[in-house]
Amino acid sequence: MSSPVHDHDVANKTYVDENAVISKTGAAMLGNLDMNNFRLTGLPSTVPQTGSDAVSWSRAVQLVRESSINYVKKTGDIMTGNLLLSADGNSDRILGCNNLDPERSFTIPLGTTTNTLYYKFRQEPVVIYTDNGFLVKARNQSICQLGSADDGPE
Questions:
Q1: Which DSSP category does 68 fall into?
Q2: Looking at the predicted structure, is the pLDDT value of residue 154 above 80?
Q3: 104 touches 95 (CB < 8 A)
Q4: Quick one: 88 exposed, middle or buried, by C-beta within 10 A (0-12, 13-18, 19+)?
Q5: Which of 41, 70, 37, 38 has the alpha carbon at shortest distance from 58?
Q6: pLDDT tens, residue by residue, 63-115
Q7: What is the DSSP string of the chain?
């Protein structure tokens, strides 16, 4: 049985508004949490389940490294290594440009700016520019050669 509260005990007690306390077992935040320069510790090192999940620093660094290795930006990026397109499934794989306006061009460099596949949208065929002639091979046998490094195409 508890003893009754006396007036002199009330002055020594600290009372907290239970609606403003975060439970150790979970509660919804209703505002910002100022950590006062303290750290969050004990965060999971697993893959986050949602875009707003917190993760450990080591996991965040790993996720950044994985994304920089596996993804190439859509603009202004340089890829190192091979680019292989999977032919699995029933869809065609397309490399190129399929929305050229008239008088616009599309070029695929093949090592230098003078060794390229080039197309300008004027109802003209694709042009192959080359410094060292043009060689067609099938089953590793030369079929046709136009020009060479010593003798330009004729």
A1: H
A2: no
A3: no
A4: exposed
A5: 41
A6: 777 765 656 677 777 777 787 777 788 888 877 887 888 888 888 888 877 78
A7: -PPPPPHHHHTT-----GGG---TT-----S----TT----S---SPPSSTT----HHHHHHHHHHHHHH---SSS----S-------SS-----S-S-PPTT-EEEEEEEETTEEEEEETTT---EEE-SS-EEEEETTEEEEEE--SSS---
- Report whether pLDDT(19) > 60: yes
Are the C-beta atoms of 44 and 59 separated by less than 8 Å?
A: yes
Gap between the Cα atoms of 119 and 105, Å rounded = 5
**Strands of the 127-129 sheet, one edge to the other:** 105-112, 115-120, 127-129
* Token pair 């620093």 in the structure block, residue: 57
pLDDT at 72: 66
The DSSP code sequence of 35-49 is -TT----S---SPPS
- pLDDT, average across residues 57-63: 81
26, amino acid identity: G
Q: Which of 16-25, 63-72, 114-123 has the lowest mean pLDDT?
A: 63-72
